[in-house]
Design a protein that fits this description.
The chain is mostly beta strands. It is 5% helix and 54% strand. The protein has helices spanning 2-15, 389-394, and strands at residues 22-38, 51-66, 69-80, 96-105, 110-117, 139-146, 151-159, 178-188, 191-205, 213-228, 232-245, 248-249, 252-262, 267-276, 320-331, 334-344, 350-351, 354-355, 359-373, 376-387, 404-413, 416-421. A hairpin with a 2-residue loop joins strand 15 (320-331) and strand 16 (334-344).
Length: 422
């Protein structure tokens, strides 16, 4: 906090010299979250006990605009309560740079942005901020946007390295080496149409004698459609993946449909289904048939207990079918949601040459939110997974007979600490 205050004062002092036609905004976020984990992300193994902890995100957001120039700087500290002693002389995690970008509006229709930035589109299934993670997700990238009336085309690229170097060195961060994408969106009456093409290159060491560093490129492409009226809210998405990854051919796809209807102004009910392709466990081919959501905000999909695709979990596996219901009820300052999911594998789970039941389990998620004050929100939830023997195979050594549940409570405080406009 002290570092945040010092940085804010330095920036304020720097821009106070010339405040002609300028805007400046500074806001703070404090977000502590308690979690009780008793089978979160995976079935808890037999004999293991539940755990609990408090994590916290602290962010300082600084926004500056002058004529055609916009600049954003977001500093953050992510910690677990108790990860440093009460009399420590330094922080274990320090202050990280979440966003640091400059944008220049070339004209009313064209703009360019460079630096550390969030790349988030549509429902964030393929590219998202992953805001549930205390650290979030951002990219070092260049993005050019063309946005005439009722149209938007964003084109971005990134090239990553460990550090400055005079010779070729392996990229060891575990991220993509290079990335290019194009996203287009338009609205036709009540219909929203988006198209996405994403090319990601991942570096790997070949198996030849010379052990050269090579880059294989995987393409993710598809569409996201929305339809919204006063009562109806629906969306349809379809994505495919092709190309190569670590010298292996890629052939995968993802399709989803969701429909919700507002029964009253306060109560909405919805139904959804998603299919993410997978690969049979006894499939000996080298082809990657399992769909990968790449940079998606996966916590928002396939259940809040994060059994599938979050943090790399379930990737290169048997895929997933997710049939879900969603009920939302809002009253005054309260928001409630109940979301049951039924999970099935998309490909076969084979053990000892016997095909197992594709039913993986049922998860029930309940969340509640309360707008305590203008800048203070309290949210919480409870989830329980009713797993099967098939899920035990995929989540070994987890035990489905155990009560696998998860609960959390989070306070988000978002005060605006300074604003200036002239």
């Amino acid at each position: 906090m002290k570092k945040f205050k010092i940085i804010a004062l330095l920036i304020l002092g720097g821009i106070s010299i010339d405040m002609q036609a300028q805007e400046f905004d500074a806001n703070l976020q404090l977000r502590p979250r308690y979690e009780y984990r008793n089978g979160y992300k995976t079935l808890i193994p037999y004999g293991q006990e539940a755990t609990s902890f408090v994590s916290q995100r602290t962010r300082l957001n600084l926004n500056f605009a002058q004529d055609q120039l916009k600049v954003k700087l977001t500093l953050q500290n992510v910690r677990t309560w108790g990860d440093v002693g009460t009399t420590t002389t330094k922080d274990a995690n320090g202050v990280a740079l979440f966003e640091a970008w400059a944008q220049y509006d070339i004209s009313e229709k064209w703009s360019a942005r460079a630096g550390r930035q969030v790349l988030s589109y549509d429902n964030q299934r393929i590219m998202g901020e992953i805001d549930w993670l205390q650290q979030g997700q951002s990219h070092d990238a260049l993005m050019v946007s063309f946005h005439p009336k009722n149209h938007q085309l964003d084109m971005g690229l990134a090239y990553n390295s460990d550090a400055e170097s005079n010779f070729q060195t392996p990229y060891t961060v575990g991220n993509y080496k290079t990335m290019q994408y194009a996203w287009y969106h338009t609205n036709v009456d009540k219909l929203g149409v988006s198209l996405l093409v994403l090319n990601t290159g991942y570096e790997y060491m070949n198996n030849d004698v010379d052990k050269k560093l090579l880059i294989d490129y995987k393409q993710t492409f598809g569409t996201y459609l929305t339809y919204k009226t006063k009562k109806i809210d629906g969306n349809l998405s379809l994505y495919g993946q092709t190309g190569k990854s670590a010298d292996k051919q890629v052939s995968a796809w993802d399709g989803a449909v969701n429909f919700a209807y507002s029964i009253t102004d306060s109560f909405k009910a919805g139904i959804g289904y998603e299919y993410l392709s997978g690969k049979d466990t006894n499939d000996g081919s080298t082809v990657i048939k399992s769909f990968n959501p790449i940079f998606g905000t996966n916590h928002a999909f396939n259940g809040y207990m994060d059994y599938f695709y979050v943090g790399g979990g379930h990737q290169n596996s048997v895929g997933l079918q997710d049939a879900s219901l969603k009920f939302n009820y809002n009253v005054k300052k309260w928001q409630f949601a109940l979301m049951p999911h039924v999970f099935l594998s998309a490909a076969d789970v084979v053990v000892d040459n016997k095909k197992m039941d594709s039913y993986l389990g049922t998860e029930v998620d309940f969340t509640a939110g309360f707008n305590f004050k203008k800048d203070i929100t309290l949210t919480g939830g409870y989830s329980q997974m009713f797993g099967t023997k098939t899920l035990e195979v995929l989540k070994a050594p987890g035990y489905a007979g155990h009560t696998n549940n998860w609960a959390w409570l989070m306070i988000s405080v978002n005060p605006r600490i300074f604003t200036y406009k002239k």
